[in-house]
């Protein structure tokens, strides 16, 4: 196991913790959203700051970067759209009455979730609310979208899946705003969710320490993944394997189709707050202020990246560079060349994808232990 060494670059321009980090589809830019109320655009070519996005009146909770536009949401109850070349604010989306937790841009629509107990769909071009999704009894934390052709034969216009602190997830018909299904079974807040590639199965992680799989068309609970001893904070779905990061300081890997646990990734000294699978390596971020690289097949720890002073809220990988964003306000770039290649897959015995920074990682925000 190699040590992390020094970061390639430390970007400490923000004056508050970084709550989220987004990579553009073309891989040319990064977007960070911060407690200081600003967002910043960065070049992946050299790690320099390209633009400062100013305008929000409170901290930025989440952000999404597209090739031609950046989107941010904030505790000021608004969402903003920005020009990625000039940094100019192009549109302000107003309508939510409390903190906006999460946004998602898909099929020329903008979806949002809020502490006001609603999710909303907006026209990306006009900045107007196209649909409100009402029915949750508490704040809506996380979002996922299944569009055509995933569910075309069943629901025209696609489906929006939302997770809430009311212990349910809901499936909404985007075209009508009607609730298609309510997914009941969790006994704690739904902090994270991912959809499979066909878009018909949702995986949800909760404070009840379980991951659950659901058929979003029928609402049926397909299986329950039990073994975690703490809240499930983050999920990643890759190659029919579900990776779940937890407050119990572990990541577990499960077969998506059966619920069988195939391995556990240990070595974290605090909650696992972020996950990213890349080219056979599982990268994790933790409340112990370290990022780690594991061989995804064997579970072996390959490298530890030390340098942050507080919880790592988000990670991205592009090319041979790992990007980590922390509540200490820094964006760090790490060279991941030289990691041992993934071990060849062993035969399987059987075979049959955010609460976000504020809640999901709250458990991780604790004083650090010495190395």
From TrEMBL:
Keywords: Repeat, WD repeat. The keyword Methyltransferase does not apply. InterPro entries: WD40/YVTN_repeat-like_dom_sf (IPR015943), WD40_PAC1 (IPR020472), WD40_repeat_CS (IPR019775), WD40_repeat_dom_sf (IPR036322), WD40_rpt (IPR001680), WDR86-like (IPR044715). WD repeats lie at residues 11-43, 53-92, 93-132, 133-182, 183-224, 225-264, 305-337. This is WD repeat-containing protein 86 isoform X4. It comes from Bos indicus (Zebu).
């Amino acid at each position: 196991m190699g040590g992390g060494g020094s970061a390639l670059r430390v970007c400490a321009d923000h004056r508050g913790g970084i709550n989220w980090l987004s990579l553009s589809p073309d891989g040319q830019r990064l977007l960070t959203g911060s407690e200081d109320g600003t967002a910043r655009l960065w070049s992946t070519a050299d790690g320099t700051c390209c633009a400062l996005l100013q305008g929000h009146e409170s901290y930025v909770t989440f952000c999404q970067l597209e090739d031609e536009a950046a989107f941010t949401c904030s505790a000021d109850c608004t969402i903003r759209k920005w020009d990625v070349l000039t940094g100019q604010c192009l549109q302000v989306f107003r309508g939510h009455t409390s903190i906006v937790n999460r946004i998602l841009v898909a099929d020329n629509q903008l979806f949002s979730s809020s502490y006001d107990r609603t999710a909303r769909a907006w026209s990306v071009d006009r900045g107007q609310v196209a649909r409100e999704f009402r029915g949750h009894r508490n704040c809506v934390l996380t979002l996922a979208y299944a569009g055509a052709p995933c569910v075309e034969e069943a629901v025209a216009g696609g489906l929006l899946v939302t997770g809430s602190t009311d212990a349910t997830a809901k499936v909404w018909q985007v075209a009508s705003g009607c609730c298609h299904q309510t997914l009941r079974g969790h006994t704690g807040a739904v902090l994270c969710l991912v959809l499979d590639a066909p878009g018909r199965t949702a995986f949800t992680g909760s404070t009840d320490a379980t991951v659950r799989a659901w058929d979003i068309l029928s609402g049926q609970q397909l299986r329950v993944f039990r073994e975690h001893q703490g809240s499930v904070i983050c999920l990643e779905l890759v190659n029919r394997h579900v990776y779940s990061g937890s407050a119990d300081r572990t990541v577990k890997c499960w077969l998506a189709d059966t619920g069988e646990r195939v391995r556990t990734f240990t070595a974290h000294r605090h909650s696992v707050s972020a996950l990213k699978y890349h080219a056979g390596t599982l990268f994790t971020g933790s409340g112990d202020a370290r990022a780690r690289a594991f061989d995804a097949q064997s579970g072996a720890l390959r490298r530890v990246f030390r340098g942050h002073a507080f919880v790592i809220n988000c990670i991205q990988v592009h090319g041979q560079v790992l990007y980590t964003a922390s509540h200490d306000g820094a964006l760090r770039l790490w060279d991941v060349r030289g990691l041992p290649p993934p071990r060849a897959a062993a035969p399987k015995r059987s075979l049959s994808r955010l609460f976000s920074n504020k809640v999901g990682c709250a458990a991780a925000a604790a004083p650090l232990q010495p190395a």
